[in-house]
Amino acid sequence: EARGRGLQLRVLKPPLPRRIAAVLPDEAGFTRALHAVLARHQVPLHDFSSDHYDDALFYDPAHLNREGVQTFFDRSLVALLRAAAR
């Protein structure tokens, strides 16, 4: 339906703190399974979960705070959005 409306889909896995990534059960398996589902629908997965940011950039164990979002935007999303616009 989204493609029929001319939309381009992308799925993002945002950065995680190292201490959280280290305790997630089978995160690599989850990422493989997610990638397989998305590949069937030709939707790219942009995995930034290994771009570990300092804990100070999170407002809780897994969500970026305002500064963290701005850092993520500057470091990763600007380039992704520019590439998608071409």
Q: Could you characterize the architecture of this molecule?
A:
By secondary structure, this protein is mainly alpha-helical. The chain is built from three helices and two strands, in the order βααβα. It has helices at residues 18-21, 27-40, 66-85; strands spanning 11-13, 45-47. A two-stranded parallel ribbon has the order 1-2.
State the helical fraction: 40-55%
Please, how many helices? 3
Average pLDDT level: 90
SSE string, helices as H and strands as E:
EHHEH
Radius of gyration: 14 Å
Q: Structural class from helices and strands?
A: mainly alpha
Give the low-pLDDT segments: none
Distance between the termini: 22 Å
Morphology: flat
Major beta sheet summary? 2 strands, parallel
Layout of secondary structure:
Elements lengths: L10 E3 L4 H4 L5 H14 L4 E3 L18 H20 L1
Parallel strand pairs: 1-2
Task: Describe the structure in brief.
The protein contains 3 helices and 2 strands. It is mostly helical.
Describe this protein with a few key phrases:
mainly alpha; two-stranded parallel ribbon; 86 residues; 3 helices
